[in-house]
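Operator note (shift B, R.M.): manual run for Cyclic nucleotide-binding domain-containing protein requested after the automated queue skipped it. Running by hand, logging everything below so the morning shift can see what happened. Input copied straight from the record, untouched. If output looks odd, do not overwrite the archive copy; leave it for review.
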Amino acid sequence: MLGFCLAEPGDYVAREGEPVDGLYIILDGQAEVSASANAEEANRPDYVLNKYDYFGYGTNSSDHQVNVVALSKLTCFILPNQYGYLLQPKTIWNAEETPEHSLLEKILHLEPLEVDIFRGFTLPEGPMFRQVFGGQLIGQALAAASKTVDCLKMVHSLHAIFLVAGDNNMPIIYQVHRARDGSSFATRKVEAKQKGLVIFTLIASFQKEEVGFEHQAAIMPDVPPPEQLLNLEEIRERRLTDPRFPTQYRNLAAKKKFTPWPIEMRFCEDSASQHKPSLNYWFRARGKLSDDQALHRCVVAYASDLLYSGVSLNPHREKGLKTYSLSLDHSIWFHKPVKADDWLLYVIESPSAHGGRGFVTGRMFNRQGELIMSLTQEALIRREKTRGPNPRPKL
Ligand SMILES: CCCCCCCCCCCCCCCCCC(=O)SCCNC(=O)CCNC(=O)[C@H](O)C(C)(C)COP(=O)(O)OP(=O)(O)OC[C@H]1O[C@@H](n2cnc3c(N)ncnc32)[C@H](O)[C@@H]1OP(=O)(O)O
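Run finished. Output pasted below as returned.
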């Protein structure tokens, strides 16, 4: 919590060697900085801090290097360490300069073309489907919207509609419309275009941090921790080597082009439970992500569409069934700050499938059991029409 510090003349406001707990801004009074007693510092003169001078967070050390003593009645405003990010310039992450960073930062990187217009690409090293991956559109559009919003406001909800299947081989233009900028909230509408055609729209709402009523009725299911579970790559490896699978199947699986996803997933149930209209898995971004909450929200938005609507097909899976499925719409509510490079549990249920549409709901919990996000999606789910090669995107 933000706070104030009141001190009387002679009181120590900070002591050398003690941990820095925040940034102190003097609102009233004077304080003296007394240099350390060690040899090198001994010659440094003491100096006086006045109104609006500050000390604490932001120095290179996590401990105070000096004593600060009140010279008069002193009032300081304290910005605790956890809010220090407010003082940092917003990163607006830059994929080119962070080669050691997660592939996701590269995927979500956008080129600014004009005010409120950005260009995104489908990278060959990312997951590729027959049309532009829905999560990529959501993540990139949210990144475009976030770049036009005051950095103190974070996305708290978004609603997306997929209009036309996107073409992986051409760039996507994101045009942001600034629908509203209020004092607490801001709203953005984003249109994604290819060949001048709107293929996707997103409406996102952003809010300044606010203190208010709190409760959490949702309880995280009791599942094994991620360390005890296999990830997608390990499951694949097992399938390739498990002698219980026919050799022909293993040879075929080995020939399939396999690109590891930039999201690591660990499934809480084995394939025997695949007929249930539900799925629980842990996931996290591979690699290191920049410390930018806006980026972390774009990354989970991207990941949220990878294994999601397919759950509505689970009760209908049978040998030889070929399906055609496409996300139609997607909504996310961000309840709390998220760390996308730490494990999140994705709890997915499909309450209904009807009329060629499957409906799924999702909840994401962090390891502490906090409900971080709620999600919904409807997807087109059909039996694949038998015909020749894959249909081309309708652009
Ligand atoms: C426990 C361990 C478990 C481990 C499991 C691990 C497994 C890993 C699996 C990985 C899976 C990863 C999945 C990731 C999926 C992500 C979802 C997306 O990105 S989705 C991307 C984001 N979403 C989007 O891009 C959606 C964008 N929106 C749209 O494309 C359109 O709005 C529309 C298609 C939805 C409706 O348009 P409208 O014109 O009213 O619709 P029409 O009805 O007229 O059909 C139009 C055309 O669609 C075609 N087609 C249709 N049905 C079939 C079929 N049954 N058959 C074949 N084709 C079919 C056909 O070309 C047809 O034309 P035509 O042949 O008839 O001439």
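Quick read of the result: The chain has a mean pLDDT of 88. The radius of gyration is 26 Å.
Leaving this for review. - R.M.
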